Give the backbone structure.
Amino acid sequence: MTRLPRWADLALIPALNLALAFLVAGLVVIYIGESPLRALRIMIEGSLGSAYAWGFTLYYATSFIFTGLAVAIAFHARLFNIGGEGQALVAGVGVALVCLSVDWAHWALALPVAILGAAVFGAAWAAIPAWLQATRGSHVVITTIMFNFIASALTVYLLVNVMRVPGSMAPETASFPPGAALPTGREMLGWVGIAFPRAPVNISLFLALICAAGLWVLLWRTRLGYEIRAFGQSDTAARYAGIPAVRIIMIVMLISGGLAGLMAINTVRGEGRRRVLDPVQGAGFVGIAVALMGRSHPVGVVLAALLFGILYQGGSELEFEMPAITREMILVIQALVILFTGALENMVRMPVERLFARLRQRRA
């Protein structure tokens, strides 16, 4: 197998996968009698064409950064944490408990405690599958899938029977105190005199970028990061070198669950300002595609999350502007991106590797 240049592996192959996904999506749009060029224009303008559009795109991207990083660090240890959905659901309960427990005087006072609550609850929900994998050999894919369903049932029970506002029929908590509300993009830019429309993007975007930078430092600038990557390359060699498998699995899954849980800062505390029935809305599963497309590198995860933010916001505008393209059709387009960047990646990688092999032979 020909080893590709780093730029080809990180940029060329994802770009080709994305182009193929949009090509197939364009054929689907043509099949239903619409113009793919007009659909593409609406998606771009709807997600990037105005400050309002950017506000929603960055809001979605923030959630995807958290869940993408959660999957990415697990990938480095050759673990497949697909329980981000459940971990974020449970973390939303932790954020709600923190925000409702005190009449916070200022958002900055509540922020570190809410971050701790989200990370601890998310990590705790990942700890049981991690322990089962590390000590009993139970595959983490199976256990995290099961824990997604358990988390959904548990949070529904809590919202209906424990945390619901007395006398209300809505399965949601009370609204958080004004002091617990995170500043939005409009408020933050207003601090420096820049006008910005009302949109859900909030200060948790910077928290997501800080987490991405921190994960890069952890993986490539610390001894623990080296051990994680070594374990992912060969657990047998890592054990021979004295790296304890149980310790690595537990640490990686706790960090992964904590990162997925931090998504609740964006959706529960930032946008919803209360704990509703489903604040995650599939972002945990989108994080898998984000990590795959970003090659499990924090920079790649941020860029892939932005792409999926564009797809989500642009898809909403497309559904509104072109009624023939239904919500299900938008999901098909998003699924095609996931399909080509994940399951069908080798369909592009193998021809590209053969091409680079021929080029090297000619130079030789």
